[in-house]
Write a structure and sequence with these properties.
Helix content: 55-70%
Number of strands: 0
Distance between the termini: 95 Å
Shape: rod-shaped
Structural class: mainly alpha
Largest sheet: none
Order of helices and strands: HHHHHHH
Number of helices: 7
Length: about 140
Amino acid sequence: MPAAVRSQLALPGAPAKVRVQRLARGCPLEPYELKIAELWERWQKISEAIERMSGPRAVLGEAPDALVHATPAPATKTRRGRRPIHHWPLIERLDAEFCLTSCAETRRPPSWKERRAALAKKLGTDTPHLKTLQRRLPKLRS
Protein backbone atom coordinates (compact mmCIF):
# COMPACT_ATOMS: atom_id res chain seq x y z
CA MET A 1 0.00 0.00 0.00
CA PRO A 2 1.44 3.43 -0.92
CA ALA A 3 2.47 5.75 1.91
CA ALA A 4 0.00 8.41 0.78
CA VAL A 5 -2.95 6.02 1.19
CA ARG A 6 -1.66 4.91 4.58
CA SER A 7 -1.33 8.46 5.79
CA GLN A 8 -4.86 9.26 4.62
CA LEU A 9 -6.16 6.21 6.43
CA ALA A 10 -4.45 7.42 9.57
CA LEU A 11 -6.35 10.70 9.47
CA PRO A 12 -9.78 10.63 11.16
CA GLY A 13 -11.53 12.43 8.30
CA ALA A 14 -10.31 10.25 5.41
CA PRO A 15 -11.95 10.90 1.99
CA ALA A 16 -14.81 8.66 0.86
CA LYS A 17 -12.73 7.07 -1.92
CA VAL A 18 -10.13 5.89 0.57
CA ARG A 19 -12.80 4.56 2.93
CA VAL A 20 -14.33 2.55 0.07
CA GLN A 21 -10.93 1.13 -0.88
CA ARG A 22 -10.34 0.09 2.70
CA LEU A 23 -13.71 -1.60 3.00
CA ALA A 24 -13.28 -3.32 -0.40
CA ARG A 25 -10.03 -4.89 0.77
CA GLY A 26 -11.76 -6.24 3.82
CA CYS A 27 -8.64 -5.92 5.96
CA PRO A 28 -8.20 -2.53 7.62
CA LEU A 29 -4.78 -1.43 8.74
CA GLU A 30 -3.66 -2.54 12.15
CA PRO A 31 -3.03 0.21 14.74
CA TYR A 32 0.73 -0.38 14.68
CA GLU A 33 0.73 -0.02 10.86
CA LEU A 34 -1.01 3.32 11.20
CA LYS A 35 1.58 4.45 13.74
CA ILE A 36 4.43 3.36 11.47
CA ALA A 37 2.87 5.23 8.54
CA GLU A 38 2.51 8.38 10.68
CA LEU A 39 6.07 8.18 11.88
CA TRP A 40 7.41 7.62 8.36
CA GLU A 41 5.55 10.63 7.04
CA ARG A 42 6.76 12.82 9.92
CA TRP A 43 10.33 11.67 9.26
CA GLN A 44 10.04 12.62 5.59
CA LYS A 45 8.66 16.07 6.43
CA ILE A 46 11.48 16.70 8.90
CA SER A 47 14.17 15.55 6.47
CA GLU A 48 12.71 17.75 3.71
CA ALA A 49 12.70 20.75 6.08
CA ILE A 50 16.33 20.12 7.00
CA GLU A 51 17.30 19.86 3.32
CA ARG A 52 15.56 23.18 2.61
CA MET A 53 17.37 24.84 5.54
CA SER A 54 20.81 23.58 4.61
CA GLY A 55 20.57 24.11 0.85
CA PRO A 56 21.99 21.99 -1.95
CA ARG A 57 25.58 21.84 -0.58
CA ALA A 58 24.63 19.86 2.52
CA VAL A 59 26.40 16.60 3.18
CA LEU A 60 24.91 13.90 5.36
CA GLY A 61 26.08 14.45 8.92
CA GLU A 62 26.97 18.11 8.37
CA ALA A 63 24.91 20.64 10.27
CA PRO A 64 23.69 23.82 8.55
CA ASP A 65 25.63 27.01 9.29
CA ALA A 66 22.80 28.42 11.38
CA LEU A 67 22.98 25.45 13.74
CA VAL A 68 26.78 25.46 13.89
CA HIS A 69 27.08 29.13 14.83
CA ALA A 70 24.14 29.11 17.24
CA THR A 71 26.17 27.47 20.01
CA PRO A 72 28.98 29.50 21.62
CA ALA A 73 32.52 28.23 21.47
CA PRO A 74 33.73 26.70 24.74
CA ALA A 75 36.03 28.86 26.78
CA THR A 76 39.62 27.71 26.76
CA LYS A 77 40.33 28.67 30.36
CA THR A 78 37.84 30.00 32.87
CA ARG A 79 38.57 31.09 36.39
CA ARG A 80 35.76 31.29 38.88
CA GLY A 81 35.60 33.75 41.72
CA ARG A 82 37.63 36.86 42.40
CA ARG A 83 41.28 37.31 41.59
CA PRO A 84 43.82 36.48 44.29
CA ILE A 85 44.91 39.46 46.40
CA HIS A 86 48.31 38.23 47.53
CA HIS A 87 51.17 36.66 45.60
CA TRP A 88 51.57 33.56 47.78
CA PRO A 89 54.61 31.97 46.10
CA LEU A 90 56.58 35.18 46.79
CA ILE A 91 55.29 35.40 50.38
CA GLU A 92 56.21 31.75 51.06
CA ARG A 93 59.70 32.24 49.62
CA LEU A 94 60.34 35.40 51.65
CA ASP A 95 59.04 33.74 54.82
CA ALA A 96 61.23 30.67 54.30
CA GLU A 97 64.30 32.86 53.83
CA PHE A 98 63.50 34.86 56.99
CA CYS A 99 62.86 31.72 59.05
CA LEU A 100 66.22 30.21 58.00
CA THR A 101 68.20 33.35 58.86
CA SER A 102 66.27 33.97 62.08
CA CYS A 103 66.72 30.39 63.29
CA ALA A 104 70.44 30.59 62.49
CA GLU A 105 70.81 33.83 64.47
CA THR A 106 68.60 33.18 67.51
CA ARG A 107 68.58 29.37 67.62
CA ARG A 108 64.78 29.39 67.99
CA PRO A 109 61.90 29.62 65.49
CA PRO A 110 60.51 33.14 64.98
CA SER A 111 57.09 34.04 66.35
CA TRP A 112 54.21 34.85 64.04
CA LYS A 113 54.55 38.54 64.88
CA GLU A 114 58.23 38.48 63.93
CA ARG A 115 57.44 36.67 60.69
CA ARG A 116 54.73 39.20 59.81
CA ALA A 117 57.02 42.14 60.64
CA ALA A 118 59.73 40.73 58.36
CA LEU A 119 57.21 40.30 55.54
CA ALA A 120 55.87 43.81 56.10
CA LYS A 121 59.42 45.19 55.62
CA LYS A 122 59.69 43.45 52.23
CA LEU A 123 56.09 43.76 50.98
CA GLY A 124 55.03 47.07 52.52
CA THR A 125 51.29 47.63 52.87
CA ASP A 126 50.45 44.52 50.84
CA THR A 127 51.11 42.21 53.80
CA PRO A 128 48.38 39.65 54.64
CA HIS A 129 46.71 39.65 58.03
CA LEU A 130 48.37 37.68 60.83
CA LYS A 131 45.56 35.08 60.96
CA THR A 132 45.79 34.59 57.18
CA LEU A 133 49.52 33.98 57.49
CA GLN A 134 48.92 31.44 60.27
CA ARG A 135 46.51 29.55 58.03
CA ARG A 136 48.61 29.59 54.84
CA LEU A 137 52.21 29.31 56.02
CA PRO A 138 53.80 26.25 57.63
CA LYS A 139 54.04 26.15 61.42
CA LEU A 140 57.53 26.00 62.89
CA ARG A 141 58.20 23.95 65.99
CA SER A 142 61.10 24.46 68.33
